[in-house]
Each structure stands twice: as C-alpha cells, then as structure tokens.
Design a protein that fits this description.
Low-confidence stretches: none
Family: Belongs to the AIR synthase family.
Mean pLDDT: 93
Number of strands: 10
Number of helices: 11
Distance between the termini: 71 Å
Main location: cytoplasm
EC number: 6.3.3.1
Pathway: Purine metabolism; IMP biosynthesis via de novo pathway; 5-amino-1-(5-phospho-D-ribosyl)imidazole from N(2)-formyl-N(1)-(5-phospho-D-ribosyl)glycinamide: step 2/2
Structural class: alpha+beta
Catalytic activity: 2-formamido-N(1)-(5-O-phospho-beta-D-ribosyl)acetamidine + ATP = 5-amino-1-(5-phospho-beta-D-ribosyl)imidazole + ADP + phosphate + H(+)
Radius of gyration: 21 Å
Strand order of the largest sheet: 6-8-5-9-7-10
Helix content: 25-40%
C-alpha cells in the first residue's frame, strides 16, 4: 500500500484551507507601504518619510499562557498577546511599529482554529498600527501533543536616530508614570497555573467575586498594547524613557535602563493592587516583594517624563483615555529601584 504525506500526519489540503480563511484577515492589517501579497516567499515593506531611520526589532512568544487557551478552547486572544510582547518592547526604544511576522507550530492543522489564532494576531497588529506581512504555519505530528500548538512573533519598527530611547535621557527629578496593565499579560503563567489549577484546586469555570468572567477567561485577558497610549508623547519628545514590565516585574525591568548614578523611587503606599493579583498571591501565600519581582502587579509600562512636561503629558494621556498613575520619581542613586509600600 502506497503511503503519502497525509498518512504521515500532514494534511496539505488543511493548509490550503487555512490560507483561504486568513487571507482577508491579514489583508485588513496592510497599508500603502506593504508591497507583497499573502502567499509569497517573503514580505515587502517600503520604508519612507525618515531622515536617519534606525530599524528596531523584537521577538517573543506567549509562553505557557497558551495552556489556558487549550484548557478553554478560546484561541482568538493569544495572538494579541503575541503581538503585544514584541511591540511593547520596541516601543521602549521610541520606535513606531511597522510590520509583524508570526510562526505557529502545531500537531495537526485545524484550519478553523488557526484562523482564530491569526485573527488575534491581526487584531494585535491593528491595535499596534502595524501590518501583518508574513508568517508560517508548521504541522508537525508527533512533536506536539494533539490539539496543542506554540507561537512566536517578530516585530520591526523604526525610529529617527536622534529620538532613540536608551535610558541616556533620564535625569534627576523625572516623574514616573505607570500605565495600567490588563492583568498578568503574558508572564508568570507557570507559577499562576501551579497556584491556581494544580491538583484540581480550581476549575477553569470557577466564578470570581470581582469579575464577570470565569477564572480561566480572566487569566486569558490579552496583554495591553501601549502604542496608542504613547505614540503622541513620543512624537512630541515628552518621554525620556519607557520600560515594559514583563517577567521580573519592576525590580528586574526598571534597572535595565537606569543610569548608574540614578535610582527610580516608587511611592506605592496608596496603590491598590488589582484583585486578580491578590487572588493568585494569596493562594500560595506569596510575599508581596516576590509578587512585585515576578509580575507587573497592574503596571504594564513605566514612563519617565521631565517635570516641565508632566502636565502636558497627562493632558495627552487623558485625551487618549489612558489609565495611568503617577507612581514616583528619579533621584540620585546607584542604578537601582526603591519601592515604598
């Protein structure tokens, strides 16, 4: 009996069907700078309107948060997470996102499920103002468990050379503005799953007192993308630095951009930690400092703004309906952070 690729577990027809389903989804993210069409060997993007352009790149995945998508059957939000993790990183260099590429590896190709995933990626690209110009779906039977998949993404942005944010513009007296997160974003889910679901502690459908969503859906809330919140401020040079608060929390991420002679001093004595963080922390009796060293704790991006620009910056944040808090200031120090609670 002759054997073919399908008998080995790879369904080419399902691949063709996926491309058909995602074609219009992807096309909706494109703009006049995109010169390529879906199905080609590579993406083409015309760079124009810059004097001394510097390309800025970022790549990331979604991590074990994907386990919640497998658990719930909700696949149309993790693509937003995928875009957010890379785009929020390149924003920290002052870059405008231009385009995005994705990679999805799976056990068996389900065209409908893949279309849901790519719809999330496209939604993230629309929120980021960038085009989805390429991607790859790999069907690898025997490599992933049935029904499971993994994702990786790659973002490219551009910034004028003299507008690069690298921490060198931070100065004593700068005000720290915390832009609120939408939840855990895409970090710390190995610990979250251990605390929440291990040994059947809670079911995915557990009803929370502080949310109208079941527990697993609440934890699946996609990562906030900060492009629309900061783009006007970046154009006006009101931002001295941006820090994306990912794994490691404030303690690990903020020092990455601090000059050696300055500290970031956070006054969070009156800060109300969002309930979902308290819920997870209390399950494992996790100390608060450990929580702030692991999760974003409700502050997904920290913005450094000069005192003379703070009022104008707040006006723009208010105009953009951005949720933010003034959380501290820059003082003389040794390149570390202090958190007062």
């Amino acid at each position: 009996m002759a054997i073919d690729y399908k008998a080995a577990g790879v369904d080419r027809e399902a691949g063709y069907e996926e491309v058909r389903k995602i074609k219009e989804i992807v096309k909706a993210t494109n703009n006049e700078n995109v010169l390529s069409k879906i199905g080609g060997f590579s993406g083409l993007y015309k760079l124009q309107g810059y004097k001394n352009p510097i390309l800025v790149t970022g790549t990331d995945g979604v991590g074990t948060k994907l386990k919640l998508a497998f658990m719930t059957g909700i696949h149309d939000t993790v693509g937003i997470d995928l875009v957010a993790m890379s785009v929020n990183d390149i924003l920290c260099q002052g870059a405008k996102p231009l385009f995005f590429l994705d990679y999805i590896g799976c056990s068996h190709l389900d065209a409908d499920k893949m279309a849901e995933i790519v719809k999330g990626v496209a939604d993230g690209c629309v929120q980021s103002g960038c085009a989805l110009i390429g991607g790859e779906t790999a069907e690898m039977p025997g490599f992933y468990d049935d029904g499971e998949y993994d994702m990786a993404g790659f973002a490219v942005g551009v910034v004028e050379e003299d507008k690069i944010l690298d921490g060198s513009k931070i100065k004593e007296g700068d005000i720290l503005i915390g832009l609120k997160s939408s939840g855990f974003h895409s970090n710390g889910y190995s610990l979250i799953r251990k605390l929440v679901f291990e040994d059947g502690k809670f079911s995915p459908n557990h009803k929370l007192s502080f949310s109208d969503k079941p527990l697993a859906e609440e934890l699946l809330t996609p990562t906030k993308i900060y492009y629309n919140d900061v783009k006007d401020l970046l154009e006006l040079d009101y931002v001295n630095a941006l820090v994306h608060i990912t794994g490691g929390g404030l303690y690990e991420n903020v020092p990455r951009i601090l000059p050696n002679d300055l500290d970031a001093e956070f006054d969070l004595k009156n800060y109300e930690i969002p309930e979902i963080f308290n819920f997870v922390g209390e399950l494992g009796n996790v100390e608060e400092k450990e929580m702030f060293s692991t999760f974003n704790m409700g502050l997904g991006m920290i913005m450094f703004v000069s005192k003379e620009n703070i009022d104008k910056a707040k006006e723009i944040l208010d105009k953009n309906n951005t949720e933010y808090l003034e959380v501290g200031k820059v003082v003389k120090g040794t390149g570390n952070i202090k958190i007062w609670r």
